[in-house]
Recover the amino acids of this structure.
């Protein structure tokens, strides 16, 4: 039996990516920046409707790094970050020599807890340093409590960097994720809802910020005929070839969201009568998710040792890729010495949680997944 592997999240092609790439080659724009990049930015700006300005970059990680630079985060400054996230949300804080301060999740959105956020801010101020920025995350495409979280940030006048890497196409009360923070970031890595093979973007609300981001992303060149530099520059611009992939991908963004939401509905039905498993569900209609990844919690019950890890291994035996939820940053060896505010919500989610294959599932693949689940629980 050699079943083909079912992956967690694979790219899907529209078929027109090659057309834009071919154009880049025919016009010899095999460069960083160029017409495809500008068109891709324009498409994204139109997609976000609200007054949004987009700078296309070579990764989501570089977008977060530039966001910190644009907000003036320097060595020794403190930056609050949701603990339950992928490491790329927090690593750029260290690139700047700043100090990450991690905050727990809440159990209903799995995202940053507004109460612990406020406790963290108050305590850091009491200890002598007001945090310079807050990095929030819409984990797995599920919006955080935008109103509560931003009310706290506004109360203390701290800018928010909205990590929307997993949430392109998600929205809260009809407003698209990525547009709530002082700055928003996107990722077009190969596993995200659309891809440029590798890429990211910074979303801001003024052309001045967009141009400032562009300046830093293209080596911080001063106005001069020779190469002249007064500030540290970075090589973070998106490649014109990669932007061609992005233009092709934009044509199917809505289809990818539909497909992932359909996959999510399949899992909800599959687990409906299995008491040990709860499929993550958003609080109410205000929270619209792109369902980038469908996630579940597995309660260990006596029967057959039905815990998360055993279920993951049962999937693995059938050559189906699943992954535990992201391990919280405050539990990571590289970050564990930094301050943390919260209880053990994120930790508990990590212990019980599993991400399931969430791309476009064929009927055959759905049946393979169903078989593993029914054999395991029933
Ligand atoms: C993927 C991801 C990033 C980083 O994006 P890259 O384009 O891979 O650099 C940042 N934050 C979160 C939450 C992500 O999932």
């Amino acid at each position: 039996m050699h079943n083909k592997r079912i992956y967690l999240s694979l790219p899907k092609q529209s078929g027109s990516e090659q057309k834009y790439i071919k154009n880049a080659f025919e016009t010899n724009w095999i460069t960083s920046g160029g017409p495809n990049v500008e068109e891709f930015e324009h498409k994204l700006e139109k997609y976000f409707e609200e007054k949004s300005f987009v700078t296309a970059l070579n990764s989501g990680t570089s977008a977060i790094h530039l966001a910190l630079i644009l907000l003036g985060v320097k060595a020794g400054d403190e930056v609050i970050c949701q603990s339950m996230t992928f490491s790329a949300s927090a690593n750029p804080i260290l690139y700047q020599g700043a100090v990450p301060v991690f905050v727990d999740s809440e159990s209903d959105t799995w995202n940053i807890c507004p109460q612990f956020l406020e406790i963290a801010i108050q305590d850091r101020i009491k200890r002598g340093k007001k945090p310079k920025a807050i990095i929030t995350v819409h984990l797995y495409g599920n919006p955080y409590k935008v109103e509560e979280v931003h009310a706290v940030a506004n109360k203390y006048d701290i800018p928010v960097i909205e990590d929307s890497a997993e949430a392109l196409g998600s929205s809260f009360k009809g407003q698209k994720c990525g547009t709530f923070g002082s700055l928003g970031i996107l990722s077009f890595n190969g596993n995200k809802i659309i891809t440029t093979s590798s890429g990211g973007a910074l979303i801001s609300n003024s052309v001045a910020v967009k141009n400032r981001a562009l300046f830093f992303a293209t080596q911080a060149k001063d106005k001069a005929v020779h190469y002249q530099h007064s500030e540290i520059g970075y090589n973070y611009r998106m490649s014109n070839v990669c932007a061609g992939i992005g233009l092709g991908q934009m044509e199917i963004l809505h289809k990818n969201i539909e497909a992932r939401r359909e996959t999510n509905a399949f899992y909800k039905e599959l687990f409906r009568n299995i008491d040990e498993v709860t499929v993550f569900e958003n609080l109410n209609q205000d929270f619209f998710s792109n369902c980038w990844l469908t996630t579940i919690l597995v309660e260990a019950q006596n029967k057959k040792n039905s815990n998360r890890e055993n279920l993951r291994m049962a999937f693995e035996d059938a050559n189906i890729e699943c992954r535990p939820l992201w391990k919280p940053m405050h539990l990571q060896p590289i970050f564990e010495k930094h301050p943390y505010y919260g209880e053990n919500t994120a930790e508990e989610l990590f212990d019980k949680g599993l991400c399931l294959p969430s791309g476009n599932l064929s009927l055959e693949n759905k049946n393979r997944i169903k078989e593993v689940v029914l054999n395991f629980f029933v």
Summary: The longest helix spans residues 253-270. The chain is about 35% helix and 15% strand. The domain at 17-252 is CATH 3.40.640.10 (Aspartate Aminotransferase; domain 2). The chain has two domains: 17-252, 254-377.
